[in-house]
C-alpha cells in the first residue's frame, strides 16, 4: 500500500507496507521481532506519522515482494544483485556473521580455507559475504536450512553439520556463546543428558560484517523513503540506534 499523500487521505491513518522475515516461531511469526526492532519501528512510525502494515513472510518472499514493488523490506544487506533492483535506506545497524560449532568438535578458523571439507549450515537465500559466496561447493559443502534456529542447532548436535553461519549484532564471541547456550543449550541436554552446560562455541572472529537497511523498488514511494531516512538519521545522531543495537549483552 502506498503512502497516502492526498488532502482527503490526511484524515485517515497513513500506512506503508513492510515485509518482515517470519522466523523462529512458526506459530506466531511476529514473536520473532526482537525488542530493538520493535522499538525502532515504533520510533519511525512516531517520527513519520505513518504506520507500518506489517507482513511476516519467508525471507525469500519478503525480498521478492519488495523487488516487485509491493512494499518495503526490513533488514536487507546490500549485494551486487540487490543493488540492481532495490534502493536502500540509511543503515540501521551492522550485522556480523559468526561460525557456531559444537564445543567438542570445534575447529580453528582464521580464513575461508579453514572450512575446507566441512559441512556448514546456511539459511537458503541469505547473503554471508563475497568470500562465503565464492567458497560454497568449492571449499565447503552447504547444508541449506530454513530460517528456523531450533532445527539448525539440532542438525549441529546430530553431527549433520560441522558448524553453522549465524547473523547477530554481537561483536564479542563470548557474548554470542552465552546467547546460543541460553537459547539452545536445552536441545543438547535432550539429545544427551550428560552434555556439559555450554555445548556450543563461537569462532574467535566473524566471517563477514555488513550493514542492514530498509529496501524498496525504485519509485515505489520516494516521498516516504525520504522521511524514513530522516528518522534513521535522527535515531543515529541521538544515540538511539547505538542504544538499541550496539550492546555487549545478548540481543532480546
Written description of the protein model:
- The chain has 252 residues and is α/β, with parallel strands linked by helices.
- Helix content is 33%, strand content 24%.
- It has 8 helices and 10 strands.
- The chain has helices at 35-48, 59-67, 80-83, 130-135, 149-157, 173-191, 222-237, 240-245; strands at residues 15-21, 51-57, 72-77, 87-88, 93-102, 119-123, 141-145, 163-168, 200-202, 208-216.
- Strands 1, 2, 3, 4, 5, 6, 7, 8, 9 and 10 form a 10-stranded mixed β-sheet that branches.
- α1 (35-48) links the parallel β1 (15-21) and β2.
- The longest helix has 19 residues, at 173-191.
- It is globular, with a radius of gyration of 19 Å.
- The protein starts with 14 loop residues before the first strand and ends in a 7-residue tail after the last helix.
- The model is unreliable at 1-11, 24-28 and 248-252 (pLDDT under 50).
